[in-house]
Design goal:
This protein has about 450 residues and is α/β, with parallel strands linked by helices. The protein is about 40% helix and about 15% strand. It has an eight-stranded parallel β-sheet. A three-stranded mixed β-sheet has the order 13-15-14, sandwiched between helices. Strands 1-2 form a two-stranded antiparallel sheet.
Length: about 450
Amino acid sequence: MPLTGIEIFKLLPKTNCKECGEPTCLAFAMKLAAGKAELTACPYVSEEARAKLSEAAAPPIMPVAIGVGDRALKVGGETVMFRHEKRFENQPGFALLISDSMDDSEIDSRLERFKLQYERIGLILRPDLIAVKGDSGDKAKFEALASKVKQNSDGGIILMSTNPDILAAGLKVCADRKPLLYAATEESWEQVADLAKANSCPLAVKAPSVEKLAELTTKLADAGVKEMVIDSGSRSLRQAFEDQIIIRSAALAKKFRPLGFPTIVFPCEMTDDPMKEAVIASIFVAKYGSIIVLSDFQGEGLFPLLVERLNIYTDPQRPLATKEGIYEIGEPDENSPVLITSNFSLTYFIVSGEIENSRIPSYLLVKDTEGLSVMTAWAAGKFVSDAIAPFVKKCGIEDMVKHRKLIIPGYAAAESGGLEEDCAPWEILVGPRDGAHIPAYLKSWKP
């Protein structure tokens, strides 16, 4: 049984140091018991207490790592049902399905599409996994495909077969990449569990219902398997959606450990329509798929899913921010206008979009304001002369333009006088308050 908040409190140092972010040790203990805090946040807990608190400190949904190095995907570790309660911890992974029954040209084209990636607000958005499926029943073909995927991609790998011998063949060539083995079933769980333990790989567990799933994960946990991903076996949208809710609520609200694992879902098996598949996948990004397997990747379906994932798995207490720096819009030269704004992502997109609409090539300086909008950052003292002037002088814009004219947002007009002094010899021009007026303003630009 998990420890209660009072039982946890008795094991804490009781210093009320506030370094964990909570006002008292008792408040921290209550959050720890509710699965809304991590034991590592307490810097003074003893090793003896840490060992006793391991069960209470473990998140209700166990974290699982797939792959190695920079491209390793971590899923699970979730502590809340709804994003606004705290945040979602680890974003789901998108997997591309490749079968050993496909011809070489199709396999090559899919491996090429796995390389699709997009840049948004300074972040690289890309898929995560390749699911290698053994449809042929031929161990040699499966092994060859697993080897080819390993050699031609840096993403995580899922080895998929109902035959443990075929999974073992795939492991011969890619065990060092720590693939996810899919799947242990009621018939094969002992053999697949032995493979997972011998190769230190995470294991997917599949059963025909949530109830059978809980029975199977209990057996596997008793056998020493710790890293598991679960599949309730549902392939209709409604039932799969209901299963996701049941699994998450049982793990979080009831602290039911047999279902406290990340999930894998298969939109690729729910429809033959690629766009409908993308819509189904979007549902599981929000509710609560940890690995989402797609039949193929196409830009028009993949990009919206990557952006949705980015938005949902952003901490709601930390605004989405653009990287500080100089952004070239169009093909600016030494006579192009120079504007400055905050790094709140929505502000950046609005301002950069209006500059593009003006068709006046420009430099846009983005100042780090911890993700706050211009007006909020100005009120908080993060977009003021003392902060802006050093950034302008150090960012390198002075080497890129001949003139010394800086356009500041209208909402920061009060800083113009201070900037004239702190940014000398720069001339400070006050731009419009509303982004929609930027194109008309830039039409009158003169260096």
